[in-house]
Amino acid sequence: MAVDPIGRDVKAFLAADPDGPVVMLNLLRFAEGGRESYERYGAALRQTFLPRYGGEVLYAGDGGPALVAEEGQAWDAVLLVRYPSRSAFSRMVADPEYQEVTRWRTLALTEAVLHPTLPWTVG
Fold first, then answer.
1. By three-state DSSP, how is residue 100 classified?
2. Helical residues (DSSP H) of 1-123, grouped into ranges
3. For residue 121, what pLDDT is reported?
4. What tens digit of pLDDT does each residue of 8-53 get?
5. How far apart are the first and last CA of the chain?
6. Residue 1 resides in a domain
7. Transmembrane stretches, by residue range (predicted)?
8. What is the CATH number of the domain that holds 60?
9. Is 122 within a domain?
10. Is residue 2 part of a domain?
């Protein structure tokens, strides 16, 4: 199962709108004992990398039973993280210091969805 983004997907992500803001939907399924490792990653993300690249956690919470979904689509945790731009997100994931702490995320998860979203314009 997928856990980390790969190069070609990051390139396509950047091509969509490199300078526009983006909110990343994170759906997480933890490995046995993985929550502690993810919390370590999350602390580094909040304390160092989000401030450095202008991101912020908008929401973080435990997943519950799905009301409408196919079998197997329950997630252990859900996060929404806003970045000022796709290029800011890309710079963060390319940062050598960030790459050092992503091992905690990779070890923590058996599956993940990292889905960029764009706000609707209501008017």
1. helix
2. 7-16, 34-44, 50-53, 86-94, 96-108
3. 78
4. 666 666 667 767 899 999 999 999 999 999 999 999 999 999 999 9
5. 40
6. no
7. none
8. 3.30.70.100
9. no
10. no
